[in-house]
Amino acid sequence: MAKSALLVVDMQEDFCPPVSRRTLLDTEERPAILTQCLKDGALAVAGGREIAPPINELLSIPFDLRIATRDFHPADHVSFSTAHPPPNNKAFESSADIVNPWNSSQSMSIPLWPPHCVQDTPGAEIIPEIDQSKLDRIIEKGRDKRVEMFSAFADAFGNKSSIAASFDLTAFLKGDGIGRVFVVGLAGDYCVRYTAVDARKEGFEVYVIEEAVKSIDNGAKGWGAAEDEFRKAGVHVVSIDGPEMQTIKLSSQ
Questions:
Q1: Of the listed 10, 64, 144, 198, which one is catalytic?
Q2: Average pLDDT, the chain
Q3: 10 catalytic, yes or no?
Q4: Can you give the pTM of this predicted structure?
Q5: Is 141 tagged catalytic?
Q6: Is the backbone peptide bond immediately before 87 cis, with ω within 30 degrees of 0?
Q7: Which position among 64, 141, 155, 198 bears the catalytic label?
Q8: Is 37 a catalytic residue?
Q9: Which of 97, 190, 212, 249 could form a Cys-Cys staple with 54, CB 3.0–4.6 A?
């Protein structure tokens, strides 16, 4: 049986709603993170923190590799509304045209977002509810200010570079003999979606674990569109209690 990897996508403070002060009483995280936990993330996904328990359950399953991704944007990233002049710089409303930094003949329009997951800020940190002691590695993505990057495998134009990501995820996985990839995290209709589809393009057998994913838009244009794309790409949406998980659990016995 092919070796399996778990990809935990973008479980970061800026993508999560706040936690209650009572919840924080039992934590020992540094003050900056505690302060951030009490705030709504810049791009908070409703219920984002609620999937930490099932993700931790999955981290306890004997996957051959457990990798987390995180957005790690420069402060002047091209997808930020603040990187563009008014009046066409309204987060969630405006868009911007960008050019492929590696092929100037290619361009696309991207939506503009509020600044989020800025490098070396509390919002870029993985939430403390995730048991990071069980992670083998963390990949930072979206580091190239010139281009959007939802997927952990490549930027929006399909480029792979050491500027945009901290390492080549495909090469790392294949170098370890990984053949199956299980994807969880935030957000189902964006970074989970593009990461899963790109993993399939790279030749992996890909599964998205539904109970461990939350989306910005749960409707037809959000998660529904992602599920349609998964079907076309050959990505499987499965249950945490499904047979696919049982094979991994049994592999350690």
A1: 10
A2: 92
A3: yes
A4: 0.91
A5: yes
A6: yes
A7: 141
A8: no
A9: 212
